[in-house]
Task: inverse folding
């Protein structure tokens, strides 16, 4: 298979294919049975309570997260909930989503030290979670998967007050009520990701910073569940030294001792002093990865973002992300450039984070695809095996699906069909968590099977 054909196959991994249903016959051929395996879910975990980064850097990041909005507007005072915090769904959720919220609330109590609990009566809750059809939500927020809004208690109330002071976070003196709107017709993973990101912002900082390498408070979407860093930020946000209504100057005066107390390891680590992210770079990245403009406009924006990244000397993960973004949007028109950009992104992420990080794994998925198409099976397996660990740690079922499905192709090409079938079943189990509908899982399996080179050697 040519590089162009391979990369166009990779492109399909980012989009839903439009083909006829596969049916039981195809399921039997691919999975060894007519019935698909049950969905896999991730087991509850507890992250470390310390962060192996400089408290000096975390100090500056905390202030930027807390006193700025993504729009660039300033927040005049820190606000948070006081006393016990209650969370409830507006209506009965799917079992898997209910379980995900229970796991998250438990983590917030243990890791962030928050006095938070789940209740059943949404009318009495501090934080309400309401699900809506995806299309309805996107009409109000085209570039957001989910949103969190203060003061209101329903979608109707939000629509009524959408452009008023009522829903303005910067006008709060204290947080008493907030509501999370998330789509109800998406995968379990997408729903869980919304719970993590929006509940973190309902409770704490409202800003996102692209310079954060280890946080969901980052619009690059590599981290999709709350990390040790995020729990540390929330623990600091609710420290007794910090109070509702504090100005940035007042918080800055007490924050060093808070960080020393809750993250002592950070005092002995040299700061990196990563520069703030330029607004023009962020705008170009958001255009490149958005859905409101043409493909050519997205490619042009990605090119501009890369020029800005070099001008700003982003010699860190942001440069890797810029190459990764340009590769994603240029696959169809310039597959050779996309292949080179994926390789550059992988090299930067690997140098910055090592082979077992989620950033590296996302780029490694593309490198594995290229290696399979070039009949370099040992190389492909190296990318896959390293990335499986990262995907499991990051709880990314969608990525696990793709990695395991690719591994199944290699194993089958090497003459082990039964093992390949088992790997595909495991892939589909994770696909049922990370991808909807089932038709898309079948389409992606078919796409991955097309990565095979036309002439297959027995050894890579």
Result:
């Amino acid at each position: 298979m040519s590089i162009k054909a391979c990369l166009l196959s990779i492109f399909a991994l980012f989009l839903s294919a439009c083909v006829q249903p596969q049916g039981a016959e195809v399921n039997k051929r691919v999975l060894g049975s007519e019935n698909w395996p049950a969905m896999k879910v991730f087991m509850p975990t507890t992250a470390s309570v310390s962060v192996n980064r400089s408290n000096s850097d975390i100090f500056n990041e905390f202030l930027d997260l807390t006193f700025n909005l993504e729009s660039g507007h300033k927040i005049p005072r820190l606000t948070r909930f006081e006393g016990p915090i209650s969370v409830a769904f507006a209506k009965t959720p799917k079992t898997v989503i209910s379980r995900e919220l229970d796991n998250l609330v438990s983590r917030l109590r243990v890791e962030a030290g928050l006095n938070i609990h789940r209740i059943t009566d949404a009318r009495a809750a501090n934080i309400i979670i309401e699900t809506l059809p995806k299309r309805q939500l996107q009409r109000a927020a085209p570039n957001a998967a989910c949103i969190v809004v203060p003061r209101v208690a329903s979608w109707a109330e939000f629509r009524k007050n959408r452009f008023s002071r009522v829903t303005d976070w910067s006008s709060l003196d204290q947080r008493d009520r907030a509501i999370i709107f998330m789509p109800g017709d998406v995968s379990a993973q997408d729903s869980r990701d919304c719970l993590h990101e929006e509940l973190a912002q309902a409770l704490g900082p409202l800003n996102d910073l692209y310079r954060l390498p280890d946080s969901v408070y980052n619009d690059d979407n590599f981290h999709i569940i709350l990390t040790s860093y995020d729990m540390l930020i929330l623990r600091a946000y609710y420290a007794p030294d910090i109070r509702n209504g504090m100005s940035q100057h007042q918080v800055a005066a007490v924050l060093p001792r808070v960080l020393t107390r809750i993250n002592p390891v950070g005092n002995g680590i040299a700061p990196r002093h990563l520069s703030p992210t330029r607004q023009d770079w962020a705008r170009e990245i958001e255009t490149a990865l958005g859905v409101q403009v043409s493909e050519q406009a997205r490619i042009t924006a990605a090119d501009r973002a890369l020029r800005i990244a070099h001008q700003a000397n982003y010699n860190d993960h942001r440069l890797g992300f810029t190459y990764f973004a340009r590769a994603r949007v240029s696959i169809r028109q310039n597959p050779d450039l996309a292949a080179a950009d994926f390789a550059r992104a992988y090299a930067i992420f690997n140098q910055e984070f090592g082979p077992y990080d989620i950033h590296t794994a996302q780029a490694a998925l593309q490198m594995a695809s290229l290696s399979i198409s070039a009949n370099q099976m040992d190389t492909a397996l190296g990318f896959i095996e390293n990335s499986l660990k990262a995907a499991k740690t990051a709880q990314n079922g969608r990525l696990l699906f793709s990695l395991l499905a690719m591994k199944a192709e290699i194993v089958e090409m090497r003459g082990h069909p039964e093992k390949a079938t088992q790997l595909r079943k495991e892939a589909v189990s994770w696909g049922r968590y990370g991808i909807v509908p089932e038709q898309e899982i079948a389409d992606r399996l078919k796409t991955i099977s097309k990565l095979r080179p036309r002439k297959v050697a027995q050894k890579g």
Observations:
- The longest helix spans residues 335-353.
- Residues 1-12, 14-23, 456-460 have pLDDT under 50 and may be disordered.
- The CA atoms of residues 70 and 165 lie 18 Å apart.
